[in-house]
Amino acid sequence: MYAGHAAVALALRWREPRLPIVPLTLACYGPDCVEVALLMINPQARMALFTHSIPAVMISAALVTLLWKVMRKPGAWVLGVAWLLHWPADLFTGRKPLIFSTPTIGLDLYQLPLADFALEGTVVAIGCAIYARGVPRRADFRRVIVILGAALIALQAAVDVALGVMRNTEWEPSLASATRQSHLPRPRVHGWAGLRMRFAFSPLTQSTRGRDGNGRTPGHRDAGLPHLRQGEVLHE
Amino acid sequence: MSLLERLAGFLAAQYRWGLHPLKLAAALAAPVLIVFLADRRIRRLAAVVAAEEERVRSLPRIRRR
Lengths: 236, 65
Hints:
By secondary structure, chain A is mainly alpha-helical. Chain A has ten helices and two strands, in the order αααααααββααα.
């Protein structure tokens, strides 16, 4: 998740107004910040295990909470919760390790940028609405919050355009196992058609097989008649 | 060429050049900066509103004097 983490920070800010927004937002992006820092040391390494696995997230959240408590600043538990919420938020958009580097689980919506944008836009709207409950009901406050939400959604849109350009793998959601074997060759279907096929929302017909080419299904009245399209002439 | 196509081309070029950790850091800093600026604006507005309310609350005292 990208802009959604900032929305989580906005929502948590309403619970603890004394907590400064920057540490809270950084805690929401905590595992990502640690991963980027580790990547700067070794750009080739895969650091998700040390930053995004459940034990890593729990240990780092506990450390951050303890550090904030030692500094005698308010809202240490909110900071820890913000760090912990990173993992379930990422579960929707990517595939994250549980305990070891495999298996990785998640809905992997980064491979469906439109669905990712819809989800994160909704999360941003909800986060801004919760944040708005903590500020006076005045037009000038509301204007700032609307601009904030619009900026976050625009940022998310840019990232989803980038994901759409960069996408080079098929959508592979997984909530159970690391690998999935199919006994049939799967057709590569993009976008919402693929989403419907994955979840079997409705039977999907990709071809016009069974139709006469004009969108009309041949019925019993056509039995024995030559199959002609409109405008065609039968030459006997 | 539409703006979206230009943006897609720019981002594709970024991807071809490689996702350097500094670019990732910049991408992480962007929402943090947006949230910080908006929250600071909200706090300043709240301070102005509080000062205004305090002034209004103090008006009867001035009249009493």
